[in-house]
Amino acid sequence: MIALLLAGAVSIVVSLVGTPLLIRWLQANGIGQPIREDGPQGHFVKAGTPTMGGLAIVAGAVAGYVAGHLPTRPGQPGQIFTWGGLAILVTVVCCAAIGLSDDWRKVRQERSSGLSRKARIGGEIAAAGLFCLIALRYAHVKTNLSFTRWDALAATAMPSWLWVIWAVLLIIATCNSVNLADGLDGLAAGSATFALSAFAIIGFWQFRHFDIYAVPQALDTALLAIALTGGCVGFLWWNAAPARIFMGDTGSLAIGAGIAGLALVMNLHLLLPVIAGLFVLITLSDIIQIVSFRLFHKRVFRMAPLHHHFELLGWPETTVLIRFWILAGLCTAMAIGIFYADFIALGAAD
Q1: Which pLDDT belongs to residue 71?
Q2: Are 131 and 90 in contact (CB under 8 A)?
Q3: What's the rounded Cα separation, in Å, for the pair 112 and 214?
């Protein structure tokens, strides 16, 4: 427990203190966010706001994760690093690098589009492939299709090649879901805080009940989850409306990779859409809009993703933000409730 508190505290402090330093450096170098021309009119005033703030989130997460492994008592060793935790962390850093390249290209070309779709997806596939390599060869992650635990749905493991395809798709989908949600000040960071907190709670529970969940990396994943949570919280202090900095693709892709990686290592594949329910809802709104327009030449929403629809209905940005945070919190509470209900049911069955 002390290790978790230390990881969370260090990540918050590093992100909280590091973000204003990053803002000053970005402003001094004229690095600001271009605004998409087809977006809500009210967003044009945000043009030039420093971007790439995800660097502070990742820095805080890495610092917190490392601090969580330091000895907390004299004469006692600290927590050990595991391949499962390192696989997730490496993927987070790789996806942050992809997002950074995308953000940098946007700034240099002074337009809202960065890397080409092929280049970006190719990078995400490479990062996800690296995750799969470490997860299977070194972390020995179970390949059963899972919901709340590895054997909840099927006792037979998926073939490694099939699990790799599943994992790559899950990582890419989650990265881009968080990216779509990064359209209002504080929306992605605040919603991710809820989701990552759920993983921290569940990870600690898995650690305490290893005989049921069989996740050797459970405590380590909980440390990483709380470190990512702290990174988001510290950043959110400066990203809350009106934002002084945006996380950019640097932050959204890194957070998405972290959420998906945690779900895969902790055997929570199918619980992920509940934990990250708000991100799923926002992604579905974008898909529905595209399909409806291409097939029927009609728009279901005034603008997609969903948060822009409510802005165009006249809701103030802060109203949309807080209500979406409430939805994210409810999804998190529901996911934890489902996880705990399964634990209780399992005890009753025994």
Answers
A1: 84
A2: yes
A3: 45
Tokens (6 digits) for 74 = 């004299």
- Which DSSP string do the residues of 238-305 spell out, in sequence order? HHSSSPS---HHHHHHHHHHHHHHHHHHTT-GGGHHHHTHHHHHHHHHHHHHHHHHHHHS--SSSSSS
Residue with tokens 């020995």: 140
Q: Which amino acid makes up residue 324? A: F
Tens-of-pLDDT digits for all 350 residues of the chain? Answer: 788 999 999 999 999 999 999 999 988 887 776 665 555 555 555 666 888 999 999 999 999 999 999 887 776 777 889 999 999 999 999 999 999 999 888 888 766 667 888 899 999 999 999 999 999 999 999 999 999 988 877 677 889 999 999 999 999 999 999 999 988 888 999 999 999 999 999 999 999 999 999 999 999 999 999 999 999 999 999 998 888 899 989 999 999 999 999 999 999 999 999 999 999 999 999 999 999 989 888 888 888 888 888 888 888 989 999 999 999 999 999 999 999 999 998 875 55
Residue type, 87: A
CA atoms 250, 186, 197, 310: torsion sign: negative
Structure tokens, 50? 């420093």
Q: How many other CB atoms are there within 10 angstroms of residue 109's CB atom?
A: 11
pTM: 0.92
Do 277 and 187 form a contact (C-beta atoms < 8 A)?
A: no
Q: Which of 138, 267, 271 is nearest to 210 (CA)?
A: 267
User: 299, 289 in Cβ contact below 8 A?
Assistant: yes
Q: Give the whole-angstrom CA distance, residue 182 versus residue 61.
A: 19
- Burial class (CB within 10 angstroms; exposed 0-12, middle 13-18, buried 19+) of 101: middle
With a CB cutoff of 8 Å and minimum separation 6, the contacts of 175 are 95, 124, 252, 253, 256, 257, 260
Question: Hey, what are 41's tokens?
Answer: 């009119």
